Please model this.
Amino acid sequence: MSKVIAMIPARYAATRFPAKLMKMLGDKPVIAHTYEAAMQSGLFADVYVITDSDVIYEEIASRGGKCIMSLTEHESGTDRIAEAARNLDVEVIVNVQGDEPFIQKEPLEKLVRLFDNEQVQVASLMRKMENAAEATNPNMVKVVTNKNNKALYFSRSIIPFQRDAGIAVDYFLHIGVYAFRKNALLNFTTLPQAPLEQIEKLEQLRFLYNDIDIYMAETSYKNIAIDTPEDLEKAKEQINNTP
Model:
């Protein structure tokens, strides 16, 4: 395997929960937990936090971590890491979301292993959903794949639709952790937003619209993303209950 790194996009002014990455979770901020979890996986030649914030930069640097300042004018975390990756000597970049402090080695390793196949340019994660009620939630993005685990489509709607109640159906949640070959990542930023992407507000549809396969790895990992103050409280409970 060629050089594999992790990049953690870390925007300070999050729309739904400003400064969430610097909120304390136990004895350290959320972003520090995420950085340390990526480091402790042992999967990466380097781990970088990519941020537009002096506060986040100083937090990571104070822990001996690597941090790269980015421009603030980015529409997505993918654009933010692409800017930082442009001048790095690297083959595969794993985009670890900054608000996932409990990210684990198992799902990240499954993602990285997909790149043993030279055809894989972009990859992501999915998990079987526990019930149909979850599948109807538009905030939980669903994915359907072909027999080779290439994504056919992502949607906020329930997919597939169960037309015949006698036929069992599994629904898969898309977990928004991505990995890219460097050229695929840089190419993504040159493509215009796709019509389906604009409709669903899902940037991964830009790849599919442009005939770029996304290979999916199935995991049992249940991610806890810090999107709201309520999520932070749940994360604190998990920290407090961990031996």
Summary: Residues 73 and 147 are 39 Å apart (CA to CA). The mean pLDDT is 93.
